[in-house]
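Each lists chain and fold; for instance:
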Amino acid sequence: MLTCLSASISGLTLNPRPPGNNALSSSINGLALRLPAALCSPPPSAASCRRGPRSTAVMMAKREEELKEIRTKSTDEINEEVVELKGELFMLRLLRSTRNEFKASEFRRMRKRIARMLTVKREREIEEGINKRISRKLDRKWKKSIIIKPPPSLIKMREEEEAEEAQEAEKSA
């Protein structure tokens, strides 16, 4: 009967259990499972994870400001920005697939912004009396008319690279 032998595998300690001791409930073939205290800590309570009422109010105010900003734009400007944001979203997906560094929160932020813009666009269609079926036809026409161009972040990155190359050429000359 071995009681003092223990094997540690990445923080999990396996202690052999004596055959007559049934005090420990979790065991595998007579080995008691014991986790370090850091792994046994209870999950954070739901109350501690929630945002306070103050931060929620701030976020709602920012959202309202963003909606006011979107509503001041024309439908064509909204369409252009939606195309740009979808291009940015595509670039983020490429960064994620190539395992480059990126902010994961940007996915949600861009999707939400696109949704808000499309919502404002649909609200305008409803005000004009355009029903859902005609709206879908207009969307298909709009999507077919989109000219694919690089997103603004890629254009900015190319301009920066060209500026660096120009500076290097001036230094070497």
Notes: The chain has two domains: 7-39, 55-151. The longest strand covers residues 12-16. The radius of gyration is 29 Å. Confidence is low (pLDDT under 50) at residues 1-14, 22-27.
